[in-house]
């Protein structure tokens, strides 16, 4: 008889909990899924609770285990974001959220495990971003990435609609593109500070608009200077 590995048990538990929730998954379900007797399963894991940290570790490693910082924060961020959205779209729900809403208040250890799972994902994104961004930019983008993508899974779970998650991904990549773009000149930065509070957080569209406004102002000043010079020259012949 083929020996059932710990990894197979954890994978089966993760799939069941993702589909049925924590409360809806029993040790008997897990044992049947991997072809074990319930008593044999308990020799690997003493309780259903003991499976949760393993389930979350498995999921985290599938997301980030093979991503090595390359020095290019923009490309690394897109790779990680694509992995997260692809996994969520494929399975139509987030195992972490499913567990977070299904755990009882009497399970503080499990709640800590789920909270740690999300903090670890945020930290992984932040570390990739900090290859090229300072903490003041990397921290909010990492948090907003989690908030936008995980929130969009609601539409996947309820309606099978991947549009919101794709929209969130596109918006986050556009924000990354803006952060990765060449810094505007000083005049544009000052105008963007007035428009947005911090030019670094301005979108590419806002940066382009500000640049056009500054160019128009410069052109106007140049035209005014030429007009003044022409008027002064004309006055000399009067």
TrEMBL record:
Pfam families assigned: TetR_N (PF00440)
- Which positions fall inside the HTH tetR-type domain? 3-63
Q: Is Magnesium one of the keywords UniProt gives this record?
A: no
Answer whether the UniProt record assigns the keyword S-adenosyl-L-methionine to this protein. no
> Which residue ranges run through the membrane?
none
Keywords of the record: DNA-binding, Repressor, Transcription, Transcription regulation
Q: Name one GO molecular function term.
A: transcription cis-regulatory region binding
What the entry lists under InterPro entries is as follows:
Homeodomain-like_sf (IPR009057), HTH-type_TetR-like_transc_reg (IPR050109), HTH_TetR (IPR001647), Tet_transcr_reg_TetR-rel_C_sf (IPR036271)
Question: DNA binding happens at which residues?
Answer: 26-45
Q: Know the name of this protein?
A: HTH tetR-type domain-containing protein
């Amino acid at each position: 008889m083929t020996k059932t590995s710990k990894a197979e048990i954890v994978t089966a538990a993760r799939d069941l909990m993702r589909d049925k929730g924590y409360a809806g998954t029993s040790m008997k379900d897990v044992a049947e899924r991997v072809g074990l007797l319930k008593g044999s399963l308990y020799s690997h894991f003493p309780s259903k609770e003991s499976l949760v940290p393993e389930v979350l570790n498995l999921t985290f490693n599938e997301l980030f285990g093979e991503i090595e910082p390359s020095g290019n924060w923009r490309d690394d961020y897109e790779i990680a974001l694509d992995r997260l959205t692809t996994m969520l779209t494929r399975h139509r729900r987030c195992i972490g959220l499913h567990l977070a809403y299904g755990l009882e208040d009497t399970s503080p250890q499990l709640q800590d495990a789920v909270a740690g799972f999300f903090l670890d994902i945020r930290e992984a994104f932040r570390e990739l971003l900090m290859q090229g961004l300072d903490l003041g930019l990397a921290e909010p983008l990492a948090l907003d990435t989690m908030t936008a993508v995980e929130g969009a899974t609601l539409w996947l779970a309820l309606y099978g609609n991947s549009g919101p998650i794709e929209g969130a991904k596109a918006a986050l990549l556009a924000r990354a593109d803006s952060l990765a773009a060449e810094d505007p000149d000083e005049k544009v930065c000052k105008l963007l500070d007035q428009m947005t509070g911090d030019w670094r957080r301005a979108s590419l569209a806002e940066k382009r608009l500000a640049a056009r406004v500054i160019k128009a102002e410069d052109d106007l000043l140049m035209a005014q200077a030429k007009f003044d010079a022409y008027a002064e020259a004309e006055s000399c012949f009067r």
